[in-house]
Amino acid sequence: MTVREEQPTIARYRLEIRWCTVFLALTAVALAVLLYIDVRPLSLLTMAAVVLGALTMICIGLRRFRPERPVPWYLLSASAVLFAVGTAIREVDGHALHPVDDLFTLAGYFGTGVAAALWLRPRQARPNYDLLLDSALIGLGALLASWTFLISPILQSHDTTANTVVAATYPVLDALLLTLVAHSMATATRSETSLRLLHAGLIAVLIGDFGYSLDAVGRAPVVHELLLVPLLVAYPIVGVAALHPTMASLGAPRHIHPHHSRQRASFIAVALIVASLIPVVGSSLDTLDRVVVSSLCALLLIGVLVRSERAIVRSARSERRAQYQADHDMLTGLLNRSALLRALNRNQEHWIEQPLCLLFIDLDGFKMVNDSYGHAVGDELIANAASRIRHIIRRDDVVARYGGDEFVVLASLDRQEAAMLAERLLGAFVRPFELSAGEIPITASVGLACGSPRSSDDTIYDLIRDADSAMYHAKEYSLGYAFHDDLRHGPEPRHNTADSGRRIWRPSGHSHNANGKSASTAV
User: Fold this and answer.
1) What's the rounded Cα separation, in Å, for the pair 281 and 279?
2) CA distance 161 to 99
């Protein structure tokens, strides 16, 4: 879009904002006048103007932002008209056209509920049973309170059956709509301003309908003009929601991270308090009321127990995950350095009166591979090397990634068994690694330090220090592996010595067999 094309667009947008501001100001003035002047034609005129202004704002938002899923906005607009028509019929003719006014109002509820469901359905990338359970518990609590204070008095009235059923339907629909609002509020983010405004508008509708229900059963007679205020406030709020740019993203598939778990728990606690008050306020309930209230209380308590159990399981799972991440290297899945240093103290019964040997493994030429192929290939090599080491050691042995390309194996082995394990570990590196960058050959050097466990915490540090020195000795003289106890003898020759009493393993130069494949031998 060029600069010349942008200028009329910006000017038109500013003009629309001004008209919307004027509309909101006039709505506020009309509501103030309505509260002070009890004139029925003025109420109807005010409602017609507010509804027309809200519909205009929705049309402007749809034309400007062009959401991918405009159907919910059409349903919401139709519901606004239906609500207004039902209220107008009720205001003009009272009960003369009853239950025509209720049919329009119930149709408005249906359209609003379908619109909310269409907005919520794509927001669940995968089922979140905790969130669904919390929303259901909030709805059950609202239904329980509605039955005690609204539905039961309506059923006990001496009105016709049709009027009684219609009047009792409103609190049920309010509980269902409150469930949808609670579910939507738990998944809304701070950036979704349009959705938050819709929440405010729906809550205003619920407040107004609650006032009508209280007035209908005679629980709390409310001034007639005051009952219209929440509904008239809801219309401009929905209109402003349609004018916000975030309205275009409503209903689009997206990953949701539910939050506000404590707030949902507070609502559930309120529902439980209401349930505990039922025996006090409902002492005159008849048999049907007691059956319904008992059933709702049972469902509510069962849901709370299930929620508590899931919360305990989730907490235990999170604790185990945190402990695992604290003790393990995320790249290889092996223990990390801090867990290795605590290994002797965490399982002392296993190491008591057992020969102890620590093998310090270092990859030869890893820095060259890392520099040549990049850190991603280096990490791939580290992970594959860890897998080979894990397949060589025994189940009771401790293996850890000490850092970088260094690995440590702690095992209950004597000197001869440790030498055999070192040879197997070195043999695991004879075969080249098949990585994403190709086939990469690499060898390793192993330093061994053997001793016996002591009560002092310095044991593991001493073994690591001695094995590290032996590893550097083996790497410097290409020995493959070396014991720290033999370092005082100086560098070993590159062949087996009969008087040394041990076997030195080293990788030989690669020689090609008859099939042209390279082979590595132990001498």
Assistant:
1) 6
2) 12
Three-state secondary-structure class, residue 386: helix
Spatial CB neighbours of 493, under 8 Å, sequence gap ≥ 6: none
How far is residue 124's CA from residue 140's CA, in Å, rounded to a whole number? 22
Q: What DSSP designation does 400 have?
A: E
Residue whose entry in the numeric block shows the structure tokens 């020969």: 355
Number of H helices, E strands in the chain: 18, 9
Residue written as token pair 């799972």: 317
Give 109-160 as a DSSP string.
HHHHHHHHHHHHGGG-SS--HHHHHHHHHHHHHHHHHHIIIIIHHHHHS-S-
Q: For residue range 253-266, what is the model confidence (pLDDT) as tens digits?
A: 666 655 555 556 66
Q: What is the pLDDT of residues 441-495, one digit of tens each?
A: 999 999 999 876 554 455 788 899 999 999 999 999 889 999 998 886 555 444 3
Categorize the per-residue pLDDT at 234 as very low, low, confident or very high, splitting at 50, 70 and 90: confident
Task: Give 187's contacts (C-beta < 8 A, 6+ positions apart).
Answer: 120, 123, 124, 131, 256, 258
Smallest Cα–Cα separation from 186: which of 137, 132, 259? 259
d(CA 275, CA 303): 13
pLDDT tens by residue, 36-87: 666 667 777 777 888 888 888 888 888 888 888 888 899 989 998 998 888 8
Radius of gyration of the chain from its Cα atoms, rounded to whole angstroms: 38
The candidate with the shortest Cα–Cα distance to 382, out of 364, 404, 358, is 404
Helix (H, G, I), strand (E, B) or coil at 334: coil
> What gap in Å lies between CA 212 and CA 418, rounded to an integer?
84
What does residue 188 show for φ and ψ, rounded to 5 degrees? -80, 145
First to last CA, the chain: 76
Can you tell me the distance from the alpha carbon of 44 to that of 472, in angstroms, rounded to the nearest whole number? 92
Residue found by looking up tokens 């004018």 in the block: 243
How many Å apart are CA 344 and CA 482, to the nearest integer?
23
Q: By C-alpha distance, which of 239, 202, 235 is closest to 50? A: 235
Strands 433-435 and 438-440, bridge-based pairing: antiparallel
pTM of the model: 0.60
Token duo for residue 91: 């205001």
